[in-house]
Design goal:
The protein has 170 residues and is mainly alpha-helical. Helices cover 75% and strands 0% of the residues. The structure holds MU-OXO-diiron (FEO).
């Protein structure tokens, strides 16, 4: 693969770990602010983002390209409430979708079919992730921001299952 694409994938690995770091920070804030269900949901999201990063790492290994882990930034640590948390999740996921689209365009431009195919999985994943967070934001709008409503949605978000990792290769 071209070195430009390998660099772009390493940047995307950083973005996926940055997402994981952001969601872990959000989860900690929720745990400290009586939102254990939202904290759990965000922990699952943290795991999911880590799996995304590893998927790109494995791809670089398979293609004989070097993995270069880049520095992460300190994530935002405080939020107003659950609605504010999920609005930040939505904005963040939209920015990741934009990044995946740019990477996809680069794969097409460099005629890298394996990368195109890998990115098709990520394009679908972004549709799913944005739909999921939009649905939570819609539910929060519907039920309102009072204590009993937040308690109910928090209990519901506590049921999110752990993401399933793909079996190890080899
Ligand atoms: Fe890996 Fe939520 O984007």
């Amino acid at each position: 693969m071209t070195s430009a694409l390998a660099t772009a994938i390493n940047e995307q690995i950083r973005a996926e770990f940055q997402s994981a770091y952001l969601y872990l920070a959000m989860s900690a804030w929720c745990a400290e602010n009586n939102l254990p269900g939202v904290a759990h949901w965000l922990r699952m999201q943290w795991q999911e983002e880590t799996l995304h990063a590893v998927k790109f790492i494995d791809f670089l290994h398979d293609r004989g390209a070097g993995v270069h882990l880049l520095a992460l930034e300190e994530p935002i640590r405080t939020y107003r409430d659950a609605a504010d948390v999920f609005e930040h999740v939505r904005q963040h996921e939209q920015s990741i979708t934009a990044r995946i689209n740019v990477l996809y365009d680069a794969a097409v431009e460099h005629r890298d079919r394996p990368l195109e195919i890998l990115l098709q999985w990520f394009v679908n994943e972004q549709v799913e992730e944005e739909a999921q967070v939009n649905s939570i934001i819609d539910q929060l709008k519907l039920i309102g921001n009072d204590g009993p409503s937040i308690y109910l949605i928090d209990r519901h978000l506590a049921t999110r299952p752990a993401p399933v990792a793909e079996p190890a290769k080899g």
